[in-house]
Every structure is written in structure tokens, then in C-alpha cells.
């Protein structure tokens, strides 16, 4: 009824998609009008348009750029006491930078029709000609030296319109359709363009990429894997390069290398979501600006945006290293206890199921007899195949449902009866598992300690100790023992729970596979193995113990960010995919990204059949095999989508028994993905693939396939998410091709068991469907889609809660990384130091002023900053805290300035002597600083020290101290947050919200860390000094070896996790394996051959002199 009303309203007023497209249609007319004008231009005149566009952008922004430059000049003139003035100036710069971004969007909006027309006209010329020629520029000559499809002939450059893209020969034959122009506008405006598979999303991306590259702030095109990044970069590059734009791909180069930095300096940079994210983390671990590779996060365009921003949104990118005692765990010791509990549960449930079957035959079907036993079996092992099969029989599911409703009523007050005989219970919908009292008794019986799993009541025990009359030393000893016991048992309970999850809820060849004696996670969306990815919170170690492979040591986090928070840093974010409409609410709520559905260029000819529903899995797979045989006989290629490795291999065995040739594409075969996808469209080809395997690569139909009916899609199960099913359907019917899709479903499938089978099973029971019979109706398909909506809502809730945890850390990360950036570049470091000093002074004054402890105050200031306050005790007692803070702060600033001038006076002559004697040889000087406890060797640039009259010596010291203190404290803070997240989960035992506890405690930890950080920086800067007697006291600083952060462990987390591939991390004894760098097809030139750039010189004396 409601659906009919909604449908009627949409017919009357139109739906969102129609309104969106209608509002964008005027752009199409404007672009095409400009496109007609451009056809009369020569190639040189067309290329000149890009320079004209850039000049217009620069002129439009000149006023703001000049204002920013003036403010920076003003800041340099301020004194150390003019803190407010400098802070105001920096605030104005930040505001102007935001205004500049807005102004840039205004001028790009004005240029859009003509810029899009330039790209479309370039595409037309490349399509209609074998070569496109123009007057050669220096950039053309540089390209010709490396690219075989670009040649210099005299003063002209010839661009061939066929070239190599990721190992495949491509000939450019694409001109933008009107609907693709609409897609380009949507992407430019920072929205998501939903375009069906085969509608040319790669071509669409060229429009906003070119337009936004004119702003000279960098365009990042993000893909889901390195193959697509290289393919798209090489496919589109000549269109951009023809106009003088630089295009590069991150995956050509090693992480954290000078070449990768150059890739980010290109106008348009392609790369995977992982590499963009990891480079951000590595940049925030760099020790000099030269080591950083990324520029401003301005505009990112994400391909397959639903995979990146939905599926992987909660997946932290982690750089990690060894943790103290990370190899100590109890998984192997506790495993036999859990194995015993699981075996006991299975044994009891087998008996209970047999009793339930007997009772049903005897007619004892009420909720206290057969119904109770069935519900108990479901609570104990919902994925039990005998139980699932029995529930599929006529009327059985209804008996269990009736019992479930009975025991869940009245706030579940009767649930203890259901769980009384169970050793543990599983809530499959919430993905939770919990030991019962009976289970705890079983695993505790064989322990020498009867309280082996009993957590001590810390609060009560400490209170009793405080009341007792025992000696203070003994009290402290007992408190320490109590806390040690609490920590050990807390970790033990956590290990038990993770082992229980591993045994009862994670299946081999479904959630993970065993490969090379390692547990490897399988991506449920693509079916690919995710190397280096590990489950969090010890779950991966528990699975390793279960599978009898080596249990890897735990690690600690050095740097981490989720993809959600990384991409939210961009000024403008957009994306494209074939399946985003079903997740539009989540994309808007989290990222403020609107989804616009783009119409297809040609009407869809694919026929989507209603689902076929069977009672059992066995019937379903037999029907799938028969359907494959029928379609193959018709000469049609068949793509069979599966939800797991296990199912694809089961189907493969069934087809092998029938001697039917086929290909399998799953986690164990993903290396052959490109070859398998290439064959998938040939007549009679059968491909078994996990639902989204091969995503991003179109299946092109072979000869005679269209006439036979096109590609046939068979889904063996409905996925939890509707967009995954839509993605599978969308593999057929590209660009108006014929095709069909059909899903085969059984009541035993996970989705149907959890959310959808009650209503369907009632219909099948009512009409007396027997085993082997099938039901097919649009009502059934809609019921299944409603079930998927329930799952999507549940998954969104889970994702949102996990992201709330990360948002806590993200706010702290922004503060720390901003301070680190200021320290690294030095431009706002003095302001941060002044703020740190003021905070320390304020904290110190208030702590001693409360008790009027003048002597303690003087001692603390002298101890911490080596300064003896001159104010008398009477003034200390009579002055208000705020006034006292300001007075001491000003005095300390003057003292710090005097100390720095003294350092410069003593050290500058030494620098001048070294420059005079060895100036041509020495670049950096190693200056020894000390605070009487720590010795610090600070590298100072000789030329900068002299040109700034010694100011660079102080700047280098300040940078060194700030960076070292920030890195050490942040790393320790991340370790504490890891521990806090694990321990806060135990708050649920006390009926408290773990997230709330995590927020409160993490804030307290962060406040403590900031206070400690400020204190360390202030103390080191004030007490640090040098003693210079002669030039021998300072030595030449050898060029610091660049820290190879690329060799540190990087990983993608499953919910939140760490990689273990190199256990030594940053300090590993073994050398990490060299990263495999993709080989690009470039022109190979002999050193004594003529340079291809056309200069007439030998290659070794021209573009090959640095090779």
C-alpha cells in the first residue's frame, strides 16, 4: 500500500534522479555549443586554450594570493612578544586559504563548458586520426624521450592514437556522450555519479580531471587496485599530455621515494586508496620537509566509491612496529579448553536436535517441548547444517519461531531456561558470542586455581587494604599484586572470548583461507586474498591457534588513519560507481556526498528475472548446474556469482563431475583475474566468480554472443547488500547489449535464515511445496530485498559505531599532526612553543598558588627551566594567578631570547671560520646541545646559518626538540589507546557503555600527554645549551640517511588490525624484501643513439645524462 502511494507521488512530481538530471541538462547544451566552435581551430590553437585557462585562473586569484603573501611578510617582522599579532595573522591566512578555494571553484565553474569542450574535441581528434600533430614544446620533447607513441619530427610532435596501457595495446576510439558530460559535471561539483557498468566511467573522469588540473592544486584519481591505477593513468595520459598537463601514477615508484614525490607534483596523479592513505601517514613520520611526498589534499575523485567509502570505511590503515612482550600470549594454552567446550556443545546439540525430531513426530510441538529444543539448538549453533536442513522442512521453522517469541517476551525473563543446558550462546545477527555459567564451570574444572577466570573486585579490595593497619610497603605490594592479577585475568578472558569466536563463528574457506601456512583473510566483496591484513584484538591470533599455524606476535601502532577520515580531509571529494544509490543515506550522513543517478546512453536490454526460491541448498545447487548446462547449449557465456570461496569450489566440483569446462575466479585464483575476465564473454564460456571479482574490467562479448542472447548472470545466493547483487547483474547488458540475470535462493542461505525466510517459508508450507519444487514471484523478490535493507541498516549501525571510536582518535590526530607539521616546516613553530610555554607557566602557577607555596614554586621553575624567579614572596602571595602567569611568561620569554642570542654569539664565529676554510666541502654542521642530562647532536645547514645571521641554529634546535618529543609521546599515546580500547570493552560487563568510557578515558589520556609534551619541550629548550671553545667542538654533519619509512610495516585492518609480515618493524634485523615496482612500457634508447627529443645530441648527453 505504502509503496503504491510513493510510486504515485513520484509519477506526479518526479523522482530525485529525474530532477537531478534535468537540473544538469543546461550544461550539456553549453558544452556542445563550445565544442562546435573548437572544431575549426588548429591543433596548436586548441593546445593554447590550456595556457589561457591557467592564466585566467591565476588572474582571478591574484588578489587573494597577494594578501596571503603580505601577511606572511608581516609575520616575519613581529617580535617574540607579539604573540597575539602573529596568531591573528595566521588565522587570517587560514581564512584566506579557505576563501581562495571557494574563489577557485567560482572561476572553474565559469570555465567548465569550454574546458569540457576542449577535452571532448581532443578525444574526437584522437579518434578520427592515426596521428595528431602540433608544434613541439620542451615538455613534448621530454615525453618523446620516454614514450614510444610520441615522436619528434623537426619542430613538430606527433602523438600516435594507439599506445600501450598496462600491457594492453589500446587505440583511442571514444568521444564523450551527452550522459557522460552530465557525469563529468556531477564529479566536478563534488558528488557521486552512479553510472551503470560499461557506461565509460574512465572516460567521464577525464573531464573533471582536466578542469580541476587548471587550478594547479593537484587532482588525485583513486582506484581500488594497482592494476586499475596503472591502466587508467596510461589510458588517459596522452589526452592530458597533449595539453601540457603532467600525469603520473604512484604505483610506478617505491613508497617514500623522491620519484613518488614527483608523482604528487604532477597535475593529475593516479593511485590506490591504500597508497594515498599510507603516504599521508608516512609524511607524518618524516623528519624533514624534503622527505614528505604529498601536497595539499585538494580534489580527489574515487573510482568504485562504494567499495572505498562504504566497505573499507572502517578499515584503518596502520603503520606498526614491535610491541614489548608482543610474542607472549595464552592462545595455545587455552585452546584445548575451548575445544572441549565446543565439542561438548556440539555433542549436546546433536542429542537435542534428535530429541526435537522425536517430539515433533509424537506431536509434542509446544514451546516447552520441541520448540524449546529447536530454539536452544539455534542459540547454540545457528550455522549447524543439520539444524538448517531440518528447519527447512514443512512447519518446523514455525515451531521454533513460536518458541522464540515466547522466551523473548517480558524482557527475556524466561531466557535462562533456554540457555541453562548450553555452554555458550551465539547471537548471529549481532555477531556476538558469550560463555554461560555452565561453560565457565567446564573450562575452570581442570584448572588448579578455582578462580582461574574470576575477575578480582579491584575497588572493594583496595578499599579494604586502605582500611587495614598493615605497613605502607606491604599495602603497596598487595596493591601491585592485585592490579597484576586483574591485568592477567582481563587478558585471559579476552583471549577466551576470541578463541570462542574463532571456533564457533569463523569458517575456513569462507571468512579466511590457509595459504603458505598462514591465515589469510578473504574480502567478502571481491573474493580476493588481502595479504598483510589481520583481524584485530587478538582474533587473528586465535584463528592461527585454532588452525595450528604459527601464532604471530602482537604489534603496536606507530601511525593510523581510517579511509573515512583520510578522504574527509580533501577540500572537494567526488566519486563514481555503478552501485551507490542503495547507500545514498550513509554517503550523505558521513561524507555529505549526494548521489546522482546518471541515465544510460542506450536503453538497458538486460532481462532481470524474479528470484527462484528452493527449500534446501542441495536443490538450489542442482538447479544452478542444470541452468548452466542449458545456457551453454544455447551458446551463451555464463558468469556465476558466488558469495564465498567454499561455494565456488563446491560448484566447480559439481561441474567437473558433469565434465563441463569452466574457469574459477576466487581468492585462490585471483592472479589469473585478467585472463579469466578476458575469456568470460566468449560463446559457451563458464566462469565461476565471487560476486565482485574482476570489478573495474568490462566483460566484452565474443562473436555471435549477442545473437544468442548475450551474457547470462547466475547468482547462487543473495548478498547481504543490494548493491553487490546490482553489481553482479550489471556485468551483463553494457551499452545496450542483450543479457539476463537470475538469482537462485534457498531458505537455508544466511540472509534468508536471519531475516527473510519466515514469511517465505509460511507461503511454501501453506501451498504444500515439496522438496525440489521452486517458488518464483515478484513478491518473493521484494521480500528478499526488504531483508537486505534490514542487513544494510544493521551494518551501517556497526560501521557508524566503529567510526565513532576512530573519530575520537582522529580529533587527537589532527591536533598532533598540525603541531608536527608546524615543527617540520618551522613557520608556526615559534607560536606553538610560546603556547606550550604559556600553558606550562599557567599550570605551574596555579598548582603552587592554590597553597601559596612560594619556595616550592621557585624550586619548580628553577628545576624545570633553569630560571630563578625574581619576584619576592609577598608579591607571589598578593598577585592574582592570571597576572602572575603573564608576568612570569614575559620574564621567561626575555630569558629565552637572551639565551638564544648568547648561543648565536658564541657559535656564529665558528660557522664563519668553517665556511671560510671548507665552505665548498661542508654543507651541514653537527652542533652539540645538552641540558646536562641529554646530549643532542643537531644538524644545521651552514649556508642558512650564515644567511640568517645564526637564527637557523636556534630554529634547527627547536625543530629537533619538538619533533623528537612529539613522535615519542604520540607513539606512546597510541599504544595506550590500543590498550584502552581493549580494556574498555570489558565495561559492558559492568553494564556501562564501552564507547562512553573510551571517550572519557582517551580525553584524559590526551590531556595528560599534551601536558607532558609541553613540559618536555619547554624544559629542553630552556636548559639546552652549547659550549663552544673552538671549531673542533663542531663537526661536519654527514648527510642524514633518509629514513626508509616505506620498509616499515603497513597493513589494512579488518575492523581494526595490524600487519605481522615483518615482525621486527622499523628495527627489524632482517632486511625487508624490496617492493616490486611495476614495469612501464617506455622507449628503450641506447646511450650512443640520437636522443628521441629531436635535439640532435647523443642520448647520453641529453635526456640520458642522468640515467
Task: Produce the secondary structure layout.
Layout: H1 2-13, H2 16-38, H3 43-77, H4 83-128, E1 131-135, H5 138-144, E2 150-153, E3 156-160, E4 162-165, E5 168-171, H6 178-188, E6 192-194, H7 201-204, H8 206-213, E7 219-223, H9 226-241, E8 247-249, H10 258-265, E9 268-272, H11 273-283, E10 299-303, H12 305-311, E11 316-322, H13 331-361, H14 370-380, H15 385-391, H16 396-412, H17 415-419, E12 424-427, E13 432-435, H18 437-445, H19 458-467, H20 472-505, E14 512-515, E15 518-521, E16 534-535, H21 539-546, E17 555-562, H22 563-567, E18 572-577, H23 584-591, E19 595-597, E20 605-608, E21 612-614, H24 617-633, E22 638-642, H25 645-657, E23 663-665, H26 673-679, E24 686-690, H27 705-708, E25 711-715, H28 722-729, E26 738-746, H29 750-766, H30 778-825, H31 829-849, H32 854-865, H33 873-878, H34 881-918, E27 924-930, E28 935-941, H35 942-947, H36 951-984, H37 994-1023, E29 1035-1036, E30 1049-1054
Parallel strand pairs: 6-18, 6-19, 7-9, 7-10, 8-9, 10-18, 16-30, 20-26, 21-26, 22-24, 22-25, 23-24, 25-26
Antiparallel strand pairs: 1-3, 2-3, 4-5, 11-17, 11-30, 12-13, 14-15, 27-28, 27-29
Helix pairs in contact: 2-4, 2-6, 3-4, 4-8, 6-8, 13-14, 13-20, 14-16, 19-20, 20-21, 29-30, 30-36, 30-37, 31-32, 31-34, 31-37, 36-37
